[in-house]
Specification:
633 residues, globular, Heat Shock Protein 90, eight-stranded mixed beta sheet, 28 strands, Ribosomal Protein S5, domain 2, alpha+beta
Length: 633
């Protein structure tokens, strides 16, 4: 029989349900629970200890690891050190010297007072420190949460923190760690991310599980070269923008210099390394018009703003942040990156030119080799063993006559530019400059067309070397930018006879309604239709017949994930890119000298002309010095 308890509830003890008394957890277990949030892996320990060293004013920080950080992590710094009293308090929970009364006024990397006690609860921890001006150094040890010391020690200055046998107190955690090499790589990544933010500090990392890395104190640009390599610095754009008290600085790669993943993207908020979805989404939006699918730019961006405008107390690991005005930050990042890419004239990565130079090899065999057969030759036996002098006339004889008027965006030959056509279809431009109304000479950045090779590549001569242009890719970008300019003024909407009702969760409806004005500018007319649906009244005419249900659901998912509605813009720009691809001058088209030079001049005034709509380079520049070096000059 079930009896009612005095409180009126049923007594379920007869159902073998047991109740346990509420108890206070031991301090050691509390620290181990906290360590599960703060200390995820050895790299987390390195991050916390190095940040403490930076907060202590260190100018030199050295790290020693062994066994992927599981066996040993030692961090040595020359900071201001700690007194005996502070040394003992540092390993107690919620003890910190970095936080005043205002939790939002955080001006240091650490502030929670959880790192050292968390580390001490799951490892063997020892700290040796000597406060500046003190005569003696002191050492304490923490083993499984139990404090030993302090006791006198020998140390000139600063602090040494040594962590050994990580997770020995919680061996189950060891099973979730990866291989020693994987953990070593994670530590190296953390090391690089912190080193990038503090170039005036000398960093070094060594150990039996890695090769030594040493970053001497340097300028910001020099530290970028140390961490990301010289190639990045040669193919990067400087970013410097200010909007409503938020400052964005750093460097971002040109679109033709990219990677297969986003691991080489470094973000900092008030000097703190972060991995924030809003910032990742902003970079994705800024580069979506320039990169091939599946490629990611390389960049290091530093945001500086008042501490009250950002909440860094979102997660114990302090890698996530929350902005008070995320729209402001996103707009600043997207606008600054797009302006840097578009405002520097035709840009292309030096990697393409370097690869081309590496492909050239001086010929030591002077024996003449016959030219290969044309791919379209119907019979290999008919292939010529010597090049027919009139072979280059083949394409010209079968080419459709073409005029600048047929190429959208290309006009007549520029005034003051003289060019003559050679008998074999090559072009010799005698002047690579123009004279303005004031009688001053203007040098063209992309030079003067000298030849058209294989009916697709324009060879141009500049005062610095040679440029090879892919005529189809270059003209494709010119046409695409003209279509985009038309889209920026608003797109026509194709009204539906019967509104399409799309059922969605209430939170998705609210997100879509918030971006309704942005959608309307792009031709998508929608409005909330009750608490759990939206009514689609019109779709972008540029898309033609489209699945409005799928489109709206995809947009809702994207807003939820990235807090942006770039998906529709991407679809429209994809359509524009397809139109530009089919509407531009094709490969295999013989161009007149005037047309080639008109194309070059259009490239010089067209935004983002360094790459086509698919992210491939439109031209490669060869420096004259590199060409001369090939011939030993």
């Amino acid at each position: 029989m079930v009896q009612a308890s005095p409180s009126g509830t049923e007594d379920s003890t007869s159902d073998n349900q047991s109740f346990r008394q509420v108890v206070r957890l031991p301090e050691t277990m509390v620290n181990q629970i906290a360590a599960g949030e703060v200390i995820e892996r050895p790299a987390s320990v390195v991050k916390e200890l190095v940040e403490n060293a930076i907060d202590a004013g260190a100018s030199r920080i050295s790290i020693l690891t062994s066994g992927g950080g599981k066996t040993l992590i030692r961090v040595t710094d020359d900071g201001h050190g700690m007194s005996t009293e502070n040394l003992c308090l540092a390993v107690e929970r919620h003890c910190t010297s970095k936080l005043a009364d205002d939790l939002l006024d955080i001006r240091s990397l650490g502030f929670r007072g959880e790192a050292l006690p968390s580390v001490g609860s799951v490892s063997r921890l020892s700290i040796t420190s000597r406060e500046k001006g003190a005569q003696d150094a002191w050492k304490i040890s923490v083993n499984g949460g139990r404090l030993q010391g302090p006791e006198p020690a020998a140390l000139g200055s600063g602090t040494i923190v040594e962590v050994s046998d990580l997770f020995h107190a919680t061996p189950a955690r060891l099973k979730f760690l990866k291989s020693d090499q994987a953990e070593t790589n994670a530590i190296t990544d953390v090391f690089k991310r912190i080193a990038l933010a503090f170039p005036r500090v000398r960093f070094s990392i060594s150990g039996d599980d890695r090769s030594t890395l040493d970053y001497p104190a340097a300028s910001q640009f020099e530290r970028l070269a140390q961490v990301l390599g010289k190639a990045f610095c040669e193919n990067s754009l400087e970013i410097d923008a200010l909007r409503e008290g938020v400052r964005l600085q750093g460097y971002a790669s040109v679109p033709t210099y990219h990677r297969g993943n986003a691991l080489a993207q470094y973000f900092y908020v008030n000097g703190r390394p972060v991995r924030d979805k809003a910032l990742l989404g902003a970079v994705r939006g800024a580069y979506m018009d320039f990169l091939p699918r599946g490629k990611h730019p390389v960049l290091a961006l530093f945001l500086d703003l008042e501490p009250h405008m950002v909440d860094v107390n979102v997660h114990p690991a302090k890698a996530d942040v929350r902005f008070r005005d995320p729209g402001l930050v996103r707009g600043l990042v997207v606008g600054a990156l797009k302006q840097a890419i578009s405002g520097n004239g035709p840009l292309t990565s030096q990697a393409g030119a370097q690869a081309m130079m590496n492909a050239f090899r001086p010929r030591t065999d002077t024996t003449y080799q016959p030219a290969p057969a044309y791919p379209h030759s119907p019979d290999p036996a008919q292939a010529q063993t010597t090049r027919d002098p009139s072979a280059s006339a083949y394409t010209a004889a079968h080419a459709t006559p073409f005029s600048p008027a047929e190429m959208p965006g290309l006009g007549e030959d520029l005034i003051g530019f003289k060019a003559t056509e050679m008998p074999s279809g090559h072009v010799a431009a005698t002047i690579a400059e123009d004279t303005n109304s004031d009688g001053q000479t203007n040098t063209f950045p992309l030079g003067a067309a000298r030849a058209q090779v294989h009916a697709n590549y324009i060879v141009s001569q500049t005062d610095k070397g040679l440029i090879i242009v892919d005529q189809h890719a270059a003209h494709e970008r010119i046409v695409y930018e003209k279509l985009k300019a038309g889209m920026a003024n608003g797109l026509a909407s194709q009204l539906l006879l019967v509104p399409d009702i799309v059922e969605l969760p209430e939170e998705d409806v609210a997100r879509l309604a918030e971006h309704a004005n942005e959608f309307a500018r792009l031709g998508l007319e929608l409005e909330a239709f009750g608490p759990g649906a939206v009514a689609v009244r019109g779709t972008p005419a540029l898309l033609g017949e489209t699945d409005s249900q799928g489109l709206v659901r995809d947009l809702a998912d994207e807003i939820a994930e990235w807090n942006s509605a770039d998906g529709l813009q991407e679809k429209l720009e994809h359509v524009a890119a397809t139109m530009a691809c089919h509407g531009s001058v094709r490969s295999g088209r013989i161009l007149k000298p005037q047309e080639m030079n008109a194309l070059l001049r259009q490239m010089e005034t067209t935004p983002n002309s360094g790459q086509c709509n698919h992210g491939r380079p439109t031209f490669i520049e060869l420096d004259l010095k590199d060409i001369e070096r090939l011939f030993g000059r």
